[in-house]
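Need tokens for this chain, all 158 residues.
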Amino acid sequence: MTDTDTPVLDALDLRILDQLQRDASLSNLALAARVHASPPTCLRRVRRLIEAGIIERQVAIVRPGALGHGLTVIAEIALDQQGDEAQRAFESRAVASDAVLQCYQVSAGPDFVLIIQVADMPAYHALSGQLFGAGSNVRNVRAFFSIHRAKFETRIAR
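Here are the structure tokens for all 158 residues:
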């Protein structure tokens, strides 16, 4: 679904989305109470938002250190060859890695920006060999290692 296919969202849809982005574990009854709608209406709206692709999925957000993945890396990747096929090949390799949490193809600078979560520096070193090593079409990697996370938000405000 493209942005032009997205249905028009009314005030109730926006309230539902706001509440679900804050806590997707709310029961339909609790969600309906928070958005001031009847439970059947709320359930119908949520299903429509899911079917329309506006709600992509519902997940639990786990603190990275809780699973032993304490190193966050923001990596800028410049490819040697930037053709469509070369970019798709790199993107496929990057998104196949569980350590790559986010992958963005960007313009006016590097070709890609990756958000990576690994246990430690040796784990990053091993991953970088797999993703950026010989035969990967990677010309340059500029990695930034997080020393403090001041904010992490998944909620998209309107």
